[in-house]
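Q: I'm a student working through a structural biology exercise. My instructor gave each of us a protein and asked us to get a predicted structure, then write a short paragraph describing it. Mine is DUF839 domain-containing protein. I'm not confident about reading structure output yet, so if you can add a plain explanation after the tokens, that would really help. Here is the sequence I was given:
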Amino acid sequence: MVAGIAGPFAGVACAGAQGGAKAAPSGYGSLRPVRDLRDGKVRLYLPEGFKYRSFSTAGEKFSDGSTVPGRHDGMAAFSGPGGSTILIRNHEVNGSVGAFGDKERAYDPMAGGGTSTLRVTRYGEVIKSGPSLNGTMMNCSGGPMPWRAWVSCEETVNGPDVADDFSGGDNSRLTEKHGYIFEVPVGRVATARPIRSAGRFPHESAAFDPSSGAIYLTEDNFGFPSGFYRYLPPKHPVLAGKLLDGGRLQMLAVKGAKRKDLSLGQEPGAAYATEWVDIDDPDPDFRGKPSNDEVVQAVGRQGRAKGAAIFSRLEGAVFHQGTVYFVSTQGGDTDPADPPPSGFGKGRGQVWAYETWSGRLKLVYESPRASALDLPDNVTVSRRGTLVLCEDGEGDNYLRGLTRSGQIFDFCRLKPIPDDPGAEFAGSTFGPGGHTLYVNVQAKQGRSIAIWGPWERGLF
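A: Happy to help. First, here is the predicted structure for DUF839 domain-containing protein. I'll explain a few features afterward.
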């Protein structure tokens, strides 16, 4: 372990890991029910002065007349013409349910996931919308790239060569292997070519380091250990103008501690020196249609055999000022008052920071209890450097802020949906200039939401 944490978030690990962190005042005031400017219904609880409008709900029509799919998930915002915002949004649809949009363009015409691209105003009014990647599966999160592209990640390893997964879908109907990352250019339909060298595993998020050209990748392996990866493309993507296949995949390890289990509760101020181990076969071939449980661990086991570190359910990731911040959804210890979640990892969440320039890994925050932070998922960062965490908890779900001084605060609460207890926040991203926070509600009838108000009054 490396002693001493300096710089941003220096005090956070001490507060969180000691179990004494409590929700801090947000500077915006208490949350209250606010009506959606779309239809007058209350969907969110927000501080006074904030407004919102929902848009592009599942089942509605895109501009081209095709139907908006559900399971809205990860998302990124880019500047558009005339002060508009271009959003690229994932749809985490599983199973062999058939592609949305134009099936002739689909990677796999039987797979129902992908991305949609929308041009909207900063008040959530849709100007134009349509499919931009289809025929993929379980597109969970990803990450924005500075060459004006979105990398979308498949959180699955389904395919015709693998036995059916937990969802009960029929993999024999699929025509292509899944479990890859795909590039979606802003303003154009994607080529739907997977980056196979970046691995076939349950991908979650992608964060780009402009200095090295590396893509840092998280893995959300629900029932098994997860890893933190980086993909080193054969040419710097900014110079190439796109992300190229044929690079090298590596997995993070703690120096001097083979297979270090970081999913467990951490000491205050935990920090580690790290190294990277190569994945020799990032896209393995399978014969005899092995079980989904076997295939979902095939890449990670290679890394752990060389000493790679163990995490619990790595989900959201974002790059900011030389550091990749990423969340471990079920990492940490379990408070006796909180029943442990199902799956691998019994905590309520950790936030980690990997310094790309030093190779040092630091614990940023460890949730002491569900009421402080409950199963963090997608993450973004504000102009002030405050992290915005989307919760995927078992009770009320919040958008919570984690400040540079280590304070957790509540910014927004999702009104419970009576017939959909699994509804959650996903895909938070600030639009150009920081006027609007766009976020998705992943639900039976998913929707996107634009939130705006007096940001300057608080910590975002």
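A: Here are two points you could use in your paragraph. Residues 59 and 68 are 5 Å apart (CA to CA). The chain is about 5% helix and 35% strand. It's a good idea to check both against the output above yourself.
Q: Great, thank you!
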